[in-house]
Design a protein that fits this description.
Length: about 90
């Protein structure tokens, strides 16, 4: 008799429930990362000091936060692709 862990793995193997996306989806996300590009040296420096808690005055603080959010999003996408590609 199968208990739930074996049933869960059997379902995974059969493609039921949670499953890995296809190669085309992974390639799409790789394209998104390429589209995001890389920060310039100055942007990388601003990201670094932002992560250290330094904040600019308004209205620049809004753009500073957007830059940090883009950086975080790109890192998370890269991590996700790495996990899905294993």
């Amino acid at each position: 008799m199968l208990v739930f862990p074996q049933i869960a793995l059997q379902q995974l193997r059969q493609g039921k429930g949670l499953k890995s996306p296809g190669l085309s989806v992974i390639q799409f996300f790789e394209g998104v990362i390429d589209e995001m590009n890389s920060p310039t040296d100055e942007q990388a420096a601003l990201i670094k000091i932002t992560m250290e808690g330094k904040r600019m005055n308004y209205p620049d603080r809004h753009d500073q936060k957007n830059l940090l959010n883009l950086h975080k999003a790109k890192i998370h996408l890269e991590m996700a692709i790495g996990l899905l590609s294993q």
